[in-house]
Amino acid sequence: MGKVKIKRKSTLIDMTAMSDVTVLLLTFFMLTSTFLQKEPVTVLTPSSVSEQKVPTANLASVLVSPEGKVFISIAGDADAELKDTWGTEALRKTILDEAVTLYNKQHPSNQVQLSAQDREAFSKINMFGVPFQVLHQFLAMSQTEQDKFISDMTQKGVGIPVNDNKDMEHLNEFQIWMRAIYNSGNDNLQKAMKKGEGIAVKADKDTPYDVVQDVLDNLQTLKMNRFSIMTALKTEQD
């Protein structure tokens, strides 16, 4: 009796449906993800058990590097298409104008003059940190040159000057920027700052304590008594 031949089944698998699902998932994650903004220096924050997330809109972020250099990032409303909202780029231009005006009033013999191109360049920058006298030179650079300049922590012209100033008639440069942010005209940002959700301070665990203390004291001197301290979530090993 002859052997019965078993009909071989094709091993070919139609992957069309799998590919469609993969593309849909990829598209979903791309549209719903929040991309990390570029920062001039890597900061390793201290650990804590707090799980509260820092907002991504209507926020002034203050970063203090391990070398004690201070930088600021500004974010406006998430949806600038709605009525009475501020887009991030428009907000940055307004804050720049306000800050330069405040600085020039306090330094009439050494005023800063910025062009329309400078204002446009500033609106594209996520995080900045140079003295006012270096601002025009910095904004005239290409993005690559800006990144290279601001990431060099040995540069004297890197970092917003800050000290323990308590004289509200003669603000230091960090205080000028924070005052300009509060006076920007963006009601949503101002309300967030009053609630303690509009200011976040991020410092490296090795940052000199006196610099961090100056930043916090400056905020309190400006009556900005409510702010967040950014930390990393503590793990079991910690």
TrEMBL record:
<dbReference type="Pfam" id="PF02472">
    <property type="entry name" value="ExbD"/>
</dbReference>
<keyword id="KW-0653">Protein transport</keyword>
<keyword id="KW-0813">Transport</keyword>
<dbReference type="GO" id="GO:0005886">
    <property type="term" value="C:plasma membrane"/>
</dbReference>
<dbReference type="GO" id="GO:0022857">
    <property type="term" value="F:transmembrane transporter activity"/>
</dbReference>
<keyword id="KW-0472">Membrane</keyword>
<comment type="similarity">
    <text>Belongs to the ExbD/TolR family.</text>
</comment>
<protein>
    <submittedName>
        <fullName>Biopolymer transporter ExbD</fullName>
    </submittedName>
</protein>
<dbReference type="InterPro" id="IPR003400">
    <property type="entry name" value="ExbD"/>
</dbReference>
<keyword id="KW-1133">Transmembrane helix</keyword>
<keyword id="KW-0812">Transmembrane</keyword>
<dbReference type="GO" id="GO:0015031">
    <property type="term" value="P:protein transport"/>
</dbReference>
<keyword id="KW-1003">Cell membrane</keyword>
